[in-house]
Predict the 3D structure of the following.
Amino acid sequence: MASNQDLQRLLDELGRLPGIGPKSAQRIAYHLLEADAEEARRLAQAILDVKEHVHFCSRCFNYATADECPICMDSMRDRTGSYHGLYHVLGGVISPMDKIGPEQLHIRELLMRLGEEDIQEIIIATNPNIEGETTASYLARTIKPLGVTVSRLASGLPVGGDLEYADELTLGRAIEARRAL
Ligand code: ZN
């Protein structure tokens, strides 16, 4: 019966992952059961390697393998072109329904950066949906009094469309056509 317990343990762990319901957990578990040992080992190793080597940049919360990510460490950034500025990852959006307020996001750290770094403009790239709008207007209200320009990506992206899936060209155009808030 030990093997069934092992399978149940895998199902439980998979089911804990975001976006994976019991059905998906079952599909993945059966796929792994049928896959060769090498494929399963690669997956397990990839998870372990990420946990060991990758974390969040201490400055912008992007992925990093050192204390700061390559973008933050690159002092030559902030040039013309489509976008060569720095980043700051909020880690989510304000969503009262999900009990996520400004204090659950990396907004405090962003405000600290405004005091420490020479920042002229903040370009907000939240998604064009209600939570994204709420977050953008909160940021504009908070940051503009500090004398920093606040703009938002042009609506060149489909409403409800996810920035993560926007290709570089679309994103570049949205940045060029950004509008002040
Ligand atoms: Zn960084």
Q: What stands out?
A: The chain has a mean pLDDT of 87. The CA atoms of residues 141 and 181 lie 9 Å apart. The first strand starts at residue 55 and ends at 56.
